Amino acid sequence: MSSSSRRISLAVLVGFTGIALAACGGEQEATSSSSETTATTISENPNASVVGGPKPVSPTTSVADDHAGHTQCGVTKGPDGSLRIVVLQGDLTCDTAKQVATEYSPKIATGQPQQVSGWQCGPSETAGILASCTKGDQEFGLAP
User: Does residue 82 fall inside a structural domain?
Assistant: First the structure.
């Protein structure tokens, strides 16, 4: 190999080595600058409040516990699953409550008062009752 070939080979080798080192240096600088940014962000407000994750669902109480002594008349379909039919007051048969509940259940999702077969049905303010229907002194509720 001639001396000029050696010099060219050496120059090419030095050039590639320089490029390789420059690329490594740039990568380290990028890593350290993002680490500094992260550290700066964390230390900017050490008193910031921490927002927790979703609150665990609390166990639901059964309708029987909430409305002990009330007649349970089975279930009907609700907007998000089955709803229990509970006679809340008056001399009301389960057959009547089931019939009205079956008619009213598709309308529950509107959140608006509805007239169903002569009954006034709508959202309930009673704890544990999603909706209720009244007619005179008779009332039944729909509970999850």
Answer: yes
- Tens-digit pLDDT profile for residues 43-67: 566 676 666 666 555 444 444 445 5
Q: What is the pLDDT of residue 132?
A: 96
Q: Looking at the structure, do residues 139 and 77 belong to the same domain, yes or no? A: yes
Mean pLDDT of 17-33: 56
SS3 annotation, the chain: CCHHHHHHHHHHHHHHHHHHHHHHHHHHHHHHHHHHHHHHHHHHCCCCCCCCCCCCCCCCCCHHHHCCCCEEEEEEEECCEEEEEEEEECCCCHHHHHHHHHHHHHHHHHCCCEEECCEEEEECCCCCCCEEEEECCEEEEEEC
| Domain, as residue range, for 8 | 1-44
Predicted TM-score (pTM) of the model is: 0.54
